[in-house]
Amino acid sequence: MSRGVVGRGLGYHVDGRDLIAGVDVAAAPGELLAIVGPNGAGKSTLINLLSGDLAPSGGMISLAGR
To answer: What is the pTM of this model?
Structure first.
């Protein structure tokens, strides 16, 4: 999928603590995607990584193939 948003092996850590580790996600243009989980599971952190508000500590993110 080169036209949507793709995250592979995403990781994010703060102060030696992993908030997200090894997450793979992909969404095509126009696709509805729900991210669900308990409080503190990393949902907002994942959205912030995918939007570019945070830089991942590991893995890669591509948007429209870039």
So the answer is: 0.87
